Every structure is written in C-alpha cells, then in structure tokens.
C-alpha cells in the first residue's frame, strides 16, 4: 500500500501537481484527494472546469488501483463516465472520494464523487474503469 507522502511526492511534477491535487486518505479500496478551484482549474467564467474535475477523478481511481495492485502490476484508465451535478467557483476547494466497486484480475471499477468542501455539495459523480497491466517500472515509488 502506498503512503500519502509517496503519492504526493511522486505526482508533484505531473499534471496532478500542476492542478494542485493533494492526497489526504488512502485505504484499501478507498482514496480521497483535494483540489483547489483556482486559475489552474477553472474555465473562463470562473467555475470549476469539467476537464479538471475528470482529471481529479481519474487520478483518485488510478492511484487507488495502483496502490492495491500487486507490485508487478500497474493500471491505465480505460473508460470514464461523468455527470456534473453542480459547480464550484474560484476560491473553493473540492474533495474527491473514490471507492472501488469491482476488483477483478484485469479491471477495477471505481465510483468517485466530488464535493465542495465548504458545504458538502455534490459537484460530480464519476465512474472510472482501469485496466490492470504489467508494471514496466516496479521501482517507481521506491524512493
């Protein structure tokens, strides 16, 4: 199981770091992460961008799958289905709460709900399917 520190350190110089995503909880089959609604994550009208929301959900599901896969396994996103229910405005923070709903040998399916942290308003509900693949870099989190 990956630690929160390992996840946050590893993703700092990636899209995840650029979007300000920080992991806060990691348990077997459950992951939480936060993301600020700021100039990096909004669309031109000052609302949270749907693409940033989907990136957050795919990140949570991907790290969740990676953290519970065998050391020789990794994952790639295979399918995403998103419903945007509400929105968040610049200055807010959102939290993604991801739970695994299917843990197969070749696929994992996650439900990720994204909420505004201030009032627990549901922003988006997203289902992510990950394909389990051979890990070509098994030492990626060893440092």
Layout: helices, strands, pairs:
Blueprint: H1 4-11, H2 15-18, E1 22-27, E2 30-36, H3 50-68, E3 73-84, E4 93-103, E5 107-116, E6 122-134
Describe the structure.
This is Thioesterase domain-containing protein. This protein has 143 residues and is an alpha+beta fold. The protein has one domain: Hotdog Thioesterase (Thiol Ester Dehydrase, Chain A). It is globular. The mean pLDDT is 92.
Q: Would you identify the regions where 5 or more consecutive residues have pLDDT less than 50?
A: none
Report the structural category.
alpha+beta
The helix tally amounts to 3
Mind telling me the C-alpha Rg? 15 Å
Please give the number of β-strands: 6
CATH architecture: Roll
Short description:
The chain is an alpha+beta fold.
List keywords for this structure.
alpha+beta; Thioestr_dom; 6 strands; globular; PAAI_dom; 22% helix; Thiol Ester Dehydrase, Chain A; 143 residues; hydrolase; single chain; Thioesterase domain-containing protein; HotDog_dom_sf
């Amino acid at each position: 199981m990956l630690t929160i520190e390992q996840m946050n350190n590893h993703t700092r110089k990636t899209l995840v770091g650029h979007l300000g995503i920080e992991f806060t909880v990691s348990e077997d089959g459950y992951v939480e992460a936060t993301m600020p609604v700021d100039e990096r994550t909004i669309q031109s009208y000052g609302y949270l961008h749907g693409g940033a929301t989907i990136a957050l959900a795919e990140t949570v599901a991907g790290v969740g799958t990676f953290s519970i896969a065998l050391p020789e396994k990794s994952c790639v996103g295979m399918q995403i289905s998103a419903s945007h229910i509400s929105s968040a405005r610049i200055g807010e923070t959102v939290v993604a709460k991801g739970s695994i709903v299917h843990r197969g040998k070749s696929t994992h399916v996650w439900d990720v709900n994204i909420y505004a942290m201030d009032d627990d308003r549901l922003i988006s509900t997203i289902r992510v399917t990950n394909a389990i693949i051979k890990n070509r870099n098994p030492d990626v989190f060893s440092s």
